[in-house]
Queue: 2 jobs
Job 1
Amino acid sequence: MDFTGLLTAVVFLPLAGAALIVFLARGAVSVRVIAGAVALAELALSVVVFAQYDASAGAPRYQLVDRFDGWAAMERFPVEYFLGVDGLSAPMVLLTGLLGMVAVFASWSVRDRVREYFVWLLVLQTAVMGVFTSLDFFLFFLFWELELVPMFFLISVWGSGRKEYSAMKFLIFTILGGAFMLVGIVALYFSTGEFDMTVMPEALRAASGLVMPAGVIFALFFVAFAVKLPVWPLHTWLPDAHTDAPTAASVMLAGVLLKMGGYGMIRVSAGMFPEVISDFGWLIVTAGVINVLYGALVTLRQTDLKRLIAFSSISHMGFVLVGIASVVGVGGVVSPVGLAGASLQMFTHGIITGLLFLLVGYVYEKAHTRYIVDLGGLATRMPVLASALVLAGLASLGLPGTGGFVSEITVFLGSFEVWSWPTALAAFGVVLAAGYILWLLQRALFGPQRERFADVRDATVLEAVPVGVLAAAVLAVGIYPSVISDTFTAGVEPIAAFIQEMAGR
Amino acid sequence: MIDELLVWLIFFLPLASFVVIALFIRPFLNRYAAAAGHLTIAAVGASLALSVWALGSVQARGESTALLWTHDWMEIGPLDLNVGVMLDPLTAIMLVVATAVSLMVQVYSTGYMRGDPGYARYYAYMSLFTASMIGLVLASNIVQLFVFWELVGLCSYLLIGFWYQKPAAAAAAKKAFIVTRIGDLGFLLGIMYLFFNREAFGANLNVLEITDIHAAATLGLIGGGAATWIALGIFAGAVGKSAQLPLHTWLPDAMEGPTPVSALIHAATMVAAGVFLVARFYPVFEVSPAALDTVAIVGGVTALFAASMGLVMNDVKRVLAYSTISQLGFMMLALGVGALAPAIFHLFTHAFFKALLFLGSGSVNHATGTFDMRYMGGLRKVMPWTYGTFLLGSLSLAGIFPLAGFWSKDEILAEAWRHGELVSQVVFWLALAAVFMTAFYIFRVLFMVFGGEFRGGADADPDADPHGGGAHLAESPAVMVVPLAVLSIGAVLAGFAANPTVDLGLIPSFWLTEFLGEKHSTINLGLAAFSTLAALAGIGLAYLMYSAKRISPERLSRRLAPAHRLLYRKYYVDEAYELYGVRRGLYGGLAYALDWTDKSIVDRTANGIGWLGANVGGALRQAQTGQLQVYGMAVSLGILTILGLYLFFS
């Protein structure tokens, strides 16, 4: 039994914070202080996890393991408490810590049912951390489903617009996806007798027979991940949920929750079903190209700031699919570049779109409208927020020097050799992104100052801090990508190698 | 011999200036703004000094291989990305051009931008631009080059939209970014295709390193087909950045930016980066005749086409913008006919005389408050320095002996003529026609702005910027006139000094050509006389129409009304792109259709399934009896089913 306790702390600290708020906090101020302190401590812990992870060659694949097998006292039911990170999940932990902190500080102005609000926000963070660190399928599933509850309440209580509708839509889609996944997990268990994700690839190969064809199990998982990512045409929950969610929930949704889908695809779909994904690479790349182009073209038509960014997320998640599809390999060689690009894209999209939703939330709070046609000339009144929005927008359209470029070019270089024409088509998304982002900036920020925004104020210091942190992260990845790409590479290289080995057989 | 640190400093000094202005002077507070200007000038000045040193080092070294220092940037399996600096003759010349013109423009801007509320922000952007431009020419890796390629585009975007309160400026900035990005997409695809061919490079060459790409092309490791696609991709990027056909529409609109920006970015340096890019990857182009022919034809057609639009514009900056497009076309056609050194030579001389002309137009604007030549006139007496320098710049652009433009333009024509193949022949005549037009339009500007009587300036111009202040006729301050004088020295001497036809002692004959590693051809006297005659004819016609008034421009334009309208409306290309490409094709067409599909089909289907689910759920609710036995039975059935499946499949 291994136990370092670090990951356990990372996963359960927010939950403990939530408990503190429930039992100890008196009044809104103390709720905020506790939540803020927990979020900062959580960020510190996630930085420690990321920094502790040894990505050098020869280091063990799974590290910081917390394993406790006497958790479920059933002999025939080998469920374990098994946490650990590899190169794929360690950066995702960092991303969750970063955006969790941002979400808490972006919620400072929440006035309604403050205690409940922060409790849900912290519970959400525990759930997502759990998903990214669980190495036991049962535990993974528990956290996967746990994430639904806080998000449902955050949208339906503190949201805006058709919030109940959107929350319910989000819930139904994700629960349906989760149901498929549960069947998949059960099928894996009955095939191999294992819930351990680290040995599953080999266990599946060693199994004498599967309860269902591998393709069916693959599909069960893939549907769950496809809903989450989301993949066209399962995306329709996303624009509604993102648009109607409160700012912090939008940040978490776009920044972290979508990545659970991509993460699952890489760890489970690619890592455990190499033969199946090799057969269905064409389907994934097609879906990816549709996501990119369809998402970008629909984005062009959006006039609500949040909806626009939500649709742009669909487009950007298409690049993740294109990157993943490259695992088909070419000439029997599977390069890790596409997978690394996909995971980089998840990370950079997380910080970039988190920043975009944060800034748009501020703009909405100050200007009282998200309707782009009603905005204009804000740069004069809020130069700091406007500069940050320009930076985030440019990062979103993949400008070099920002993280967005690094991930997109990695996806392109990795996937072009496998899917030349689809990748070339997907690259058009870059031009379309310039179209909708620059249109947004021009209409919302530039032009003559408007009378009705004459007393709109720029960001306060408290508001500027999370903006600054995310902006710094966006630039850091853009200027020196190795800080993050080395870890991701260590995470995806074994997967690519395994697929190549399987394909060679 | 210069060392690595100093070469990096050429890049880092302006970058540091940007960071200091952005973080410490803080442009939005508008305090210590003057310090921003001084800091930028100091940084760029130091970069210029180091660049000259670098040029000297490369010259003294005298080897054909580049000085190269690289570092790891990102490594993912086979993707091995480095960053580094590479110093070869081409880089060294570009460094000197970029920093020298930048320094002049920064000094000039302290006068031109004085009192602007965005003064510090202006210098922050200018510092960032200078750093990015230097990074672009120093880059040792194609991806690194692409990074700076896009960053100069960003600075261009920020500076075109510098007066973002003006809707026209904000729109022009957006247009510039998007149009150039279409070209950049081609560049990106070229890089992808290059990486795709990495096996051909073998184990010792890194497919993304520029020097290794040169080696692979020279050794014949890249075949003709692959080279064509890679070269065309790279050329697509150059077409966007250098505003060649059909991606030229952004540059005239970019004139919404401050005039010193037009001089530096949209005349001397950034737009010339397209020419630099083709020159940088020239070994790849040389493998592919098809790619070279494409470059020549695009360049030749652009040279003529842009010059023809310059004939009729009334805004002095727009004339200069079309002139820039046309001159860049000259450089491209030179590259296309295999004349690398003449292309870079023309880039070098053009940087001086075109920056001079733009800064001159800014000086004129400073006095009159307008850019519309119909409301200028008679400035020769009031602004003698501006007039004198502008005249030198115009003569140089027109290619009159012995000014800088004459030498470089003539080499291009001579090379095109000498080649004698069909493509070269065609572009030669295109270029010759463009020479005539060039001389005409620039002297039309000269006569309309400086000749005759003053016609009211901003006070008479209904479209003048109402915040710009009216006309106050006077020579511009010394900080503006001195850079004009310095640049006019370049406009006169750069040609003869950089690439003299006779040995000057300090500078040997054909120094630049040989520095770039090319063989020079002899001067073709007949051709030189012929092209000079064409230029003189253009000047003469402009004189007859706009100075002596022997021919009425109004009557001429009425008689040639269809042609005039075609030119004045820019061949309707902008309208076609805007209306059919963007409005009807993309926004109102494809995007509209998909948005409708998303709302009315995809989402409605999802909701329909949801409705079905809710109603089926209602039916199933009958099963929720609350009796544990029933549930137990259902669970047992379920387990049995799973077991059954298990047994069946195993």
Job 2
Amino acid sequence: MPTLEATLAKTALFAAHVGLGGKMVPFAGFEMPVQYKMGALKEYTAVREGGAGIFDIAHMGQVRVSGDEALEFLQYLTTNDVSKLVEGQVQYSALLNETGTFIDDITTYKLGDNAYYLCINAANRHKDVAHLQTEAANFDVVVVDESDDTTLLALQGATAQAALQPLLDIDLESIGYYKFAEVSINGCDGIISRTGYTGEDGFEIYIPNAIAVDVWDALLANGAVPIGLAARDMLRTEMGYALYGHEISDAVTPVEAKLMWITKLEKGYFIGKEAVEARKESGPQQRLIAIKLTGRGIPREHYPVSVDGVLSGEITSGMFSPMAGGVALAYVKPEHAEAGEVSVEIRGKQVAAERTVLPFVRSNVRR
Amino acid sequence: MTISANVKYTKDHEWVRMDGDIATFGITDHAQEALGDIVFVELPEVGREVEAGEAYAVVESVKAVSDVYAPVAGEVIEVNEELEGEPEKVNTDAFGAGWIAKVKVIGDGPVELMTDDEYNTFLEE
């Protein structure tokens, strides 16, 4: 039997997490902290209520795409319109199969006219890279997987900028929402974007592994609190942000996942375009809705959802929100997307829920 | 934590305090620590009869849903309704204000319950 240590990867910050009392769990092939000593609720509060939290998300993947046909290549492979990106801008996007379903959701960074940087999900990394490299054979581009050398930190919360600014020469005020800068940090090259997954102001910081511990420690010294996977998922779900393996997967298209806003059918051909157009024409096979329990209980992933007493679908992400109560995203039958009494089956009992709008709690991102 | 000679423990990290034929149930400090922040407790209905080893309550932390098992058989006569509004009491005072239910014991009671010393030894193993 392989041991846990032998089969799971560790990020450059593994020892730091253990030192901070991190409870390490398997996640996307890595040993990652689900929470630290203070516990998930206090971590959540630190980010939501005026502090700053720091998250090790180095399990995520990074791919550099460069070459004379980098733009054409990414227009062909991703759903969003890369021609609209300006240098220093980030774009939320997706990679689709020919069938229009998701290979992954990604962010695209425009480094220059012939150079882009993609951030991809940890669990999909090898699949994504293989897909990109296969397609790259038909374009004048080079695809380099930099994941193993790169640490990605997220720094999120109202005081994120104050915690990060002392480490940098550039003025962070110059980086707008979904913008980034290539920076010098601790003597190394890094990328800092005003992006995140929490609904708070904050940054994502791409740095070489060699300086990961120093930057992490400096941010802690500047008041940031370490945040584990549990609080990260609470913050993500409260915003209604899609997560691969939950709201999006190779079983749904952007039509179902309410991600047509990143799927630009008018931009020209891209992989999956025809299938998405056909699905848009025929209508989604299921619809994503946001619900809030009115009865007691916590809606959890995979709990069955009924509308007017008829089984209609299931929860994809659900949680107890300290600010909003029991909230969830669920896929239901198309005819139940707009109307009907919703209930969630919890341990054999139907618990009443109401439809609501996203985000479940107010977003404080800087627009 | 309140340690008392008439408190016994199960291998599933529940405690039971006997007072005549009334037994009070809860989960141990070790259990709440392992679960993390508790955000919901589903209490049994008063009047329900539970078997020893039967799931009688559910404790939910941020990430996990856990059944809680009855250390002894009995009829539920009282539940800690304060946990409906303040489930965190299970974290802050697992052996006191975080009690879950009281039962009137039915039958001879438990087969395999541990004393405080035995439970601490069990935790070390």
